[in-house]
Design brief:
Layout (H helix, E strand, L loop, with lengths): L7 E4 L3 H11 L5 E4 L11 E2 L8 E2 L6 H5 L1 H4 L10 E2 L3 E6 L5 E4 L3 H6 L5 H12 L2 H8 L9 H11 L3 H8 L3 H11 L11 H14 L4 E2 L4 H13 L3 E3 L16 E3 L3 H7 L6 H8 L6 E9 L13 E6 L3 H12 L9 E4 L14 E9 L8 H11 L7 E7 L1 H7 L15 H5 L16 E3 L13 H13 L2
Parallel strand pairs: 1-2, 1-10, 2-9, 6-12, 10-16
Antiparallel strand pairs: 3-4, 5-8, 6-7, 11-14, 11-15, 12-13, 13-14
Length: about 475
């Protein structure tokens, strides 16, 4: 490794690693980013996974937190090709009777799709809409010093419960309960666990304020824009360079790891205090996912026409069905009727596929590291709400948890959330510390989604980690 000393080295060129590097570079430092694979992006990449001309998101596809991120919003990313496409509706949740609940920008329109629980929905959600800008700053904050404690406290009065508790307290009918179950299931937590309701409410409020947009030309355009901007600031990116030991690191004043916690342990196992190593090794991971990407000859033929205006579709029917699927993954089991999260970006971004053709992407939660092939079960769920779906499939690409981890080591056992989002790990991520980004080693930091605020393509973990370092050298 070169003997030239850098201001900082960032290990991993995912959104958080690039965010850390940009934050440092904006302060005049010259960081270098080392990416182990041949392509940058981590969980935000795009590739022709099925057929030529069909662009698929290898990781994330829908980005409510991308458009809401205070860090992203502070950057001139549109100048580097990032264009957000807002879909007519953020989400559709179809039911077996051919209808669907729809999350639209209008609270009233959304409430109307929920039938008899319309007024209850407005009562639950409306109080937070005008405070989204304050709320998102603290939801994507460091979990240490809230900027708007009153707003966060009011949100917490309803949010820090289980999804089941909130759904049963506010709603009486299956439509609204099922709709909320799908939102909360993004937490990858059992729906009777606290704080699963936080995720459901936050995503719902985001849908009414910033939407659930897709980036034109795929998720890779997010990290592509970040990388180009970093380079204009003097930062460097080197691909194909795995860091497995200290010998793989160039000399630098600070090191940032956009990696899972134990990757740092392996690099510094001879110098990290044993107690801290044990804490990182005991960090808990949640369920993995089984993912399918499809090349399609036509749009998905949904029974509920409302699904065609949503970028995301939740397939699971009732609250109890969704809850059973999510609990099974935590208990080490799979179900033949999994809750499925599906994205259909090519309906709104024609650059994703050849003219007249389409792409779609879907996953379900499975036990961490599960090797079960869920293709038939996932496609059966799509077919359930879109009869004739199998007839429009031109090609498919499947990814098991092991395959996902092989492609991106941060997806431990297929966990896309950077570690279980349990109540403990919401606040103690990856350890209980006033500065969760710092380590006992001077100048060594963690900046991945295993730190606050956690999962999502928002760059805030990297931003906070970089600022922790900058504050330490003032």
């Amino acid at each position: 490794m070169t003997s030239v000393e850098h201001d900082a080295v960032v290990v991993g060129a995912g959104p958080n690693g690039l965010a850390a590097a940009i934050t440092l570079a904006k302060k005049g430092l010259k960081p270098i980013v080392l990416e182990g694979t041949t392509a940058i992006g981590g969980g935000a990449r795009s590739s022709e996974l099925t057929l030529p001309g069909f662009i698929h998101d290898t990781g994330s596809a829908i980005h409510p937190l991308g458009l809401a991120s205070p860090f992203f919003l502070s950057l001139p990313l549109s100048q580097f090709g990032l264009e957000w496409v807002k879909t007519p509706a953020a989400l559709a949740h179809p039911f077996d009777d051919g209808s669907a609940a729809v999350l639209e920008s209008s609270i009233e329109a959304t409430a109307e799709s929920l039938g008899g629980d319309a007024n209850s929905y407005v009562k639950l959600i409306e109080p937070y809409i005008g405070y989204w800008d304050e709320l998102v700053i603290d939801l994507l904050g460091t979990r240490r010093f809230p900027r708007h404690p009153l707003t966060l406290a009011i949100f917490g009065l309803r949010a820090f419960y289980s999804a089941r508790s909130v759904a049963e307290s506010f709603f009486r009918e299956y439509r609204a309960r099922g709709f909320f179950a799908g939102l909360a299931a993004h937490s990858a937590l059992p729906l009777n666990a606290v704080p699963s309701a936080v995720f459901g409410l936050a995503l719902c409020i985001a849908g009414h304020t910033v939407g659930w947009p897709v980036p034109r030309r795929g998720a890779g355009s997010i990290t592509g824009a970040l990388a180009e901007y970093l380079q204009t600031l003097g930062g460097k990116i080197v691909t194909g360079q795995f860091v497995k030991s200290k010998a793989d690191l160039p000399k630098s004043k600070a090191i940032f790891f956009d990696t899972f916690p134990t990757a740092l342990v392996e690099v510094y196992k001879d110098t990290l205090p044993a107690k801290y190593q044990k804490k990182l090794r005991n960090y808990k991971y949640g369920p993995g996912i089984f993912k399918i990407d499809w090349a399609l000859s036509a749009p998905i033929p949904w029974s509920a026409r409302e699904c065609a205006k949503a970028g995301t579709v939740h397939l699971g029917g009732t609250f109890d069905e969704v809850a059973e699927s999510e609990l099974a993954a935590w208990k080490g089991q799979v179900t033949d009727k999994p809750f499925v999260i599906l994205a259909q970006p090519s309906l709104f971004d024609p650059s994703r596929a050849p003219k007249g053709k389409h792409t779609a992407w879907a996953y379900c939660h499975v036990p961490n590291g599960c090797s079960e092939d869920m293709t038939k079960s996932i496609e059966a769920q799509v077919e359930r709400f879109a009869p004739g779906f199998r007839d429009v499939i031109l090609a498919r690409h499947t990814s098991t948890p092991a395959a996902l981890q092989a492609e991106n080591p941060n997806l431990v056992g297929g966990d896309i959330t950077g570690g279980a989002q349990s109540l403990k790990q919401i606040f103690c991520r990856p350890t209980c510390s006033l500065s969760p980004y710092s380590t006992p080693l001077k100048g060594v930091f963690i900046c991945s989604s295993s730190t606050p605020p956690g999962a999502g393509v928002h760059g805030m973990c990297g931003y906070h980690a970089a600022n922790a370092y900058l504050n330490s050298i003032k």
